[in-house]
């Protein structure tokens, strides 16, 4: 829920227009919770979730490593105080010149999922450690990932062998069980595949050393989610089950789970209307929508808590939409939200749990609307 520090900031500062406020105390607490739940697993924060310098500096000071998807993200992590040894270039789709730049900056850990990517790395980052991303089932996730990243587990052996022949160091396996994964057991089958690849590579004389557990650790939105310790227990059990006494080094890439609950967006209602005199549902238009940072409402995948000062009043179904002149800018229609019947233009609304994937999804100036303003407290 929105913290008292955020409420106090909004009450005192009264920022104009929609804005995101991040409470660093929540980020700090979440990091400590993950460390306690999975003490043997290194945390590589997914920078794409929220690259605010204050967030990166806090996590770097606490010892976090960083999962980066681009050279600019690598440069952000370095500027925040992270040494190159604590940075992974985790995108499997990279320009060769970007690989060379990352290598020149000291990065030595790279993701691959194809022979062609291995060839680029062999030329631009000789001797680097590589981990191969494999496809896995995203069942149980609110936002299952597509086949865009990763290869079939059977192919991963050949990709890693190919990496060895190109002067690289085959280091491990990675996967992603889907964003906002609410099933702690979702990692089991992926770890079984990883263990099989470790065995096959060992038979070829290559000892892999690392499993990247990826992200997927959820934030709380409308519904409760399992505690971090439940994920830690389930993953620890799966590692013992599939790797026995030879448990590899593990890393994790939380993004949403670290910063999602740390943020609240303050928005304003622009219009409340109906499409006909017999309409059962009102349309509530906000001054922020999909193009202002709420892209994860696509297909209503992420349903954010909506809070108003009139929540004690009677409620009725509402369709929630953004302010732009694009018909796709409707947040919730398939499953309308119950909102106070007394809402009117000018009322403020807090959109909770919006610390992740909002500022980075906000357009520069679609329809002339300014990018989402951010305050870090």
Automatic annotation (TrEMBL):
GO terms for cellular component: cytoplasm. It comes from the Bacteria. Gene3D superfamilies: Alanine racemase (3.20.20.10), Lyase, Ornithine Decarboxylase, Chain A, domain 1 (2.40.37.10). It catalyses: L-ornithine + H(+) = putrescine + CO2. This is ornithine decarboxylase. Keywords: Lyase, Pyridoxal phosphate. It is an enzyme of class 4 (lyase). Its cofactor is pyridoxal 5'-phosphate. Pathway: Amine and polyamine biosynthesis; putrescine biosynthesis via L-ornithine pathway; putrescine from L-ornithine: step 1/1. It comes from Roseitalea porphyridii. GO terms for molecular function: ornithine decarboxylase activity. Belongs to the Orn/Lys/Arg decarboxylase class-II family. The active site is at 325 (proton donor). GO terms for biological process: putrescine biosynthetic process from arginine, via ornithine. Its EC number is 4.1.1.17. Pfam families: Orn_Arg_deC_N (PF02784). The keyword Metal-binding does not apply.
